[in-house]
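Q: Predict the bound structure with iron/sulfur cluster.
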Amino acid sequence: MSQKPKLRIVLCAPRGFCAGVVRAIDVVERALALYGPPVYVRHEIVHNRHVVQSLISKGAIFIESLAEASNRQAPVIFSAHGVAKSVPREAEALGLFTIDATCPLVTKVHREAQVHFKRGRKIILIGHAGHPEVVGTLGQLPEGAIALVSSVAEVEALSFGPEEDIAYVTQTTLSVHDTQEIVAAILRRYPKAREPLRADICYATTNRQEAVERAAPLVEAVIVVGSANSSNSQRLREVAEYAGVRLSRLVASAEEINWDEFGAVRSLAVTAGASAPEILVEQVLDAFAARFAIEVETLSTADESVFFPLPRGLRKQEATRSGT
Ligand code: SF4
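A: Predicted complex:
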């Protein structure tokens, strides 16, 4: 009988769902229970196909434009990434009723940008062009009010004068390491630039990156479970690569594992982006267990106890329905 080769697996913790994702999924499920299907969700509620498919099976309809919400009695939910100010305005004009599932840590960044704008400051946003969160943050203010940068070179190309009152904010799901370099470039050019009082890169992104950074030197390979369009999952894969791991791959599910690459590996770290459910991690472990004699250990770098309450309007509606 042929024996399976041994494989040591380091399971990173924290990994997977963050408080903002748990809340956003909860919003859709509670809205379905409260109003019945359909419930429209503008954009993927969180960037994970598995989550989206499961909500579709319960009666959610995902739309990209508000015009697609043909049943005007059904609620429209805004995703965890946040939306530009024009979106609720358009919804109101269309007579739609909306529920905002924007993560409170994204809303914090929106507020910071609004305060800086009111005080007449020039605002720099560090983030990736086209990501829904960045589109939403840019859309909090009139067009052109925020300068978007994603690299040190783009900071060097900024046209603000050295005497101007400048502040920066960031996307919540960036690489901590890359962002430090961009912030350093901003402070070199504008030493008095105002920084966020509390870092804009969120606790979940920071903790997941720290765990994978600590695990990477201990293993030959890293698997990040998450969708290709998930910014924080992509960053986890990069963080592992920067930390020197030979093979770092992002997989949406166990089916995407390339066994030609992973067949000879004898030590592996596994983590998951903030929008990836734990069931997908378990399926990845099962896939390895089918081919290897696995030994799993957990590397834990932080305890998380963050919780965000549901949007007030939804809680009120639930209380009204239940008569409490
Ligand atoms: S990754 Fe961070 S900002 Fe995004 S939903 Fe989770 S907690 Fe909120």
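A: The CA atoms of residues 67 and 94 lie 8 Å apart.
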